[in-house]
Q: What sequence folds into this?
């Protein structure tokens, strides 16, 4: 299934000046990695974000947010935000920043 190119482009724009960011097609969508660690991505029309286990439960309480579970195996520390949850640039930036804050704590691969 195709993924939202427009959402991918918006994320790409936010990450354009960051060192160590790469892109990779995964999960039937596109993912952005920071120093080899998965950061955020686009799956169908939704954004996926790696926010870590500490922020996970509170993120699930927000509107438009669900567990990231496309293989019937929930990925703890990851959330899926539907298109309404990243409609504004402010919302998209918030999710990208939250993912960046967590992934920066991981060792580079």
A:
């Amino acid at each position: 299934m195709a993924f939202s190119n427009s959402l991918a482009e918006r994320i790409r724009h936010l990450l354009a000046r960051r060192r160590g960011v790469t892109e990779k097609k995964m999960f039937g969508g596109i993912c952005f990695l920071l120093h080899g660690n998965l950061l955020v991505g686009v799956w169908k029309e939704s954004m996926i974000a790696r926010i870590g286990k500490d922020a996970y439960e509170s993120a699930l309480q927000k509107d438009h947010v669900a567990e990231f579970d496309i293989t019937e195996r929930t990925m703890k520390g990851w959330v899926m935000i539907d298109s309404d949850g990243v409609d504004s640039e402010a919302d998209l930036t918030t999710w990208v920043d939250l993912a960046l804050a967590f992934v920066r704590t991981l060792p580079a691969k």
Helices lie at 5-15, 53-60, 89-103. The first helix runs from residue 5 to 15. The radius of gyration is 13 Å.
